[in-house]
Amino acid sequence: MAQKIISIPMKTICIYEKIVDIIYARALNRPNFAVLYAQLCAFLINDAAFNKLHNSKTTFQKVLARKSFDVFTSQYTPQTEVHKLKEKFKNSNMTPSNFKNSLNTFYFQYYNRSLTHCNFIGELYKQGAFTEKIILACIEELMRVKDDLKIYCLCIILQVAGPKISKTHNLDSIVNHILLFNIENSALIEMSPTLKSLIFKIQNLHLKDWINEESVKLIEDNKNHVSFEKLPEKLKKPYEFKSYTVMAQCIIDECIVVLNNFDKKKSFNEIVHMLNNINSWIQYDQVSFVVSMILITLNENQSIRYKAGILLDKFVTEGLLLSDSVLLGIDKVMDDSEMKIELPRLPDLLFDITSRLKYLDINST
Q: Name one GO molecular function term (predicted).
């Protein structure tokens, strides 16, 4: 295959880009062959006649690096796809259960592809297709924001490229970045067991001067774990946590829109009409809707809390909310121990809302 590519009679930037696209697509779709595709790239780059265009500063290596960085920077911004799923839910009859399943599948595939890409980047450097400057730029980009995926990607790159890059570059700050994330977040987020073990492995590799004797771990070792549904329950939790976070934000976003419209003097009938024209969360999880409506007002001025109370009261009188759901939502906020610490005046803030609930037995709260 390499000889066929080299023998192409006419080389242009467009030809380079098409070759890179083909190699990239195959490398990401066939992660078990990442080493072979990285070796192919290194072979093409080391062929001086093929690598450089005549009368141009463009090289095959530069085109490959640009493609890699473009995929690299776009790969770690899932907001666009998540937004599409949120809009699909809002504008369809999709149930929360199906929405959660879609999010779970998306996050699983997204993580898999991101980690596969980082493994390929590491191999491109290891096999000589990428320079130290390129791999360090990728590492620097990953260190800009701390989250579990970026830490996972850093671990994958270091596991592959660490033994080579450590010969010319001090990796202390990068490893410390990973270990600090582990210390700060192990009790705060649902971290994948695979990520925990991989962080421990990176720590050991660093202590042992990067002598790597094990194969690279991507999502899981079990070859049968090819989809979210086939994962063991304990391995599903990190993805489900992200899905639930998105769903919670959806409810908050809806409450913000509703309250803003009410604040802008739109009639209650207009708000009901708006909710009837979307797949509103109020019909699926009334308690969470009430909790979200309360939470978005706690740091606002008193008039906003009054309006939230009036709005909740109208929802009850018009039959959109059950009075029990409102009371349960209030109790849920009141019983939140962290909220009590964060907002010492929580009872007073809640009273601003509950004082407007004419048709509820507030004394029962």
A: translation initiation factor activity
pLDDT score at 216: 61
| 8 Å CB contact between 47 and 6 | yes
List Cβ<8 Å contacts ≥24 apart for 150-155: 150/76, 151/178, 151/181, 151/182, 151/195, 151/199, 152/111, 152/114, 152/115, 152/192, 152/195, 152/198, 153/76, 153/114, 153/115, 153/118, 154/178, 155/195, 155/198, 155/199, 155/201, 155/202
Nearest 5 degrees, angle CA 297-CA 298-CA 304? 40
Nearby residues of 243 by Cβ (< 8 Å), 6 or more positions away: 100, 103, 104, 107
State the Cα–Cα distance between residues 247 and 148, nearest whole angstrom: 19
What does the chain come to in residues?
Answer: 365
Range of lowest pLDDT (149-153, 158-162, 186-190, 249-253): 186-190
Nearest to 67 by CA among 86, 92, 41, 103: 41
Q: What is the dihedral of CA 80, 98, 242, 287, to 10 degrees?
A: 110
Q: What is the pLDDT of residues 257-288, one digit of tens each?
A: 999 998 888 889 999 999 999 999 999 999 99
**Cα atoms in the 13 Å half-sphere on the side-chain side of 35:** 5
Alpha carbon 331 to its chain centroid, in Å, reads: 31
Residues sharing a CB contact under 8 Å with residue 348, sequence separation 6 or more, in sequence order: none
Rounded-to-integer distance, Cα 302 and Cα 165, Å: 57
Cα 44 to its chain centre, rounded Å, is 35
247 within 8 A of 100, measured Cβ to Cβ: yes
Query: CA-CA distances (angstroms) from residue 296 to 81, 185, 299?
Result: 25, 25, 7
SS3 318: coil
Angle, helices 96-126/13-29, rounded to nearest 10 degrees: 120
Cα within 13 Å of Cα(188), Cβ side:
7
Mean pLDDT of the 294-311 span: 94
Residue 52: strand pairing partners: 59
